[in-house]
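Lecture 7 notes: from sequence to structure.

We start with a single chain of 477 residues. Read the sequence below before looking at the structure.
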Amino acid sequence: MSLKVYNVLKRKKEDFIPLEEGKVKMYACGITASGDAHIGHAFQAVVFDMIRKYLEFSGYEVTYVRNYTDVDDKIIIKAQEENIPPMEYAEKLMEKIDNELLELNVTPPTICSRATESIEDIIDYVDKLIKSGHAYATEYGDVFFSVKSFPNYGHFSNRVVEESLSGVRKEVEPGKKEDQDFALWKSAKEGEIAWDSPWGKGRPGWHIECSTMSMKFLGETIDIHGGGKDLLFPHHENEIAQSESLTNKKFANYWIHNGLIKVNGQKMSKSLNNSIFLRDLLDNFNYEVIKYTLLLNNYRSDANVMDGMFEVNEKHLYKMYQTLKLVNDIIKDKEVSIIPDVKSRIINEFKEAMDNDFNTSLAIANLLGYDSELNKLIVEKKYNEMYTMVEAIKEAYKVLDFMNQDPQTFIKNLQEKYLVKYNLTETEINDYIMKRNEYKQNKDYESADKVRDDLLAKGISLMDSREGTTWDLVFRD
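Now the structure, written as tokens:
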């Protein structure tokens, strides 16, 4: 099965055929540096990181560009509130967000572009649009794109021009000929950050920034352009209009949109005060827990984050790592080798799911389905089979970017986290175990059982073996 991608442009799944064999050029609209990164930003970053990694896993050489919008009305307002220059405000936020995405283990894009680094290119593109009759400058120093000059406007978002302003906040903009026309260049207000241009001091409009950066770094036509589905209109519709008017070429062959985030069934918004910030997630959960939770969802669907969901998935990963550690302990002194048929069966099933429009939810379900088979191999002591299965599962999970840590370290870190929750220390647990052993040696089994039950009530289970007594977490609600 070849890779099929849901193309928003065609509203259907299509075979993925890149412009150049073996190479993929991909652009994703990134974050506007006007506030802290939230889980919606994380979802977008994780989705396109996953897409990039799977394309690379499939043998493609990927050039991936993701942008920052670092000049914008919101940025100017926030900077004024903090009484610092807008560029300083944006720089501070971008550095913070970059560090958080690194903590989330999102691989940096091939090129991370900032709008303010492409001002000269933007001015050049705007000037060409004016000269070709697709844009016009006003006496006030603004430049607008003429929507009626692009006959296909509205095709991408399935809107007619007369309906295109529905739900869009209208502003009085002197010199604008038609309501649906949009800004390519905005004249500077007093005290605002601005650049010199043929139309006077000003700054770029949002839509032309992304078109310019995409074409500057990837060319006039690219393979994949994407972002959150909230960008469908007006942002991506406007990108297509201005880009194709400029070049007379198709802007992108495949458009990919990820879903949005809901919190307990409601849209995440400032007004509902239900925003989940990435910093808070990283402070409380291993990055794999965050990625696992997000990728259990189909990337095109809205992800509904429910209370306790990250805690539940944290426990799932803990158990998965326990199985991995058990296999590692069993085979560490054994001579083992890969069984090709077993490995190819697992990898091919993974690829079949992922080739169906990056179906991570099915891919994960399939991989989790090997748990019972793996436990059977452990009981039957089939070392080559269990080794092969674990290595194949790890190879698949590497694309999704979890189950990639040292099992013992992951388990230890989570145990320490929960011991704090349970108000226990490892020393105290060992003291309980020693006391229980003394009771057992003295054949006071009732007292020994009471120690075990007391620990169980605190969230700790004890396991006896010939090597001694060990303990594990019992997750409490």
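The first helix runs from residue 39 to 57. Keep this in mind for problem set 3.
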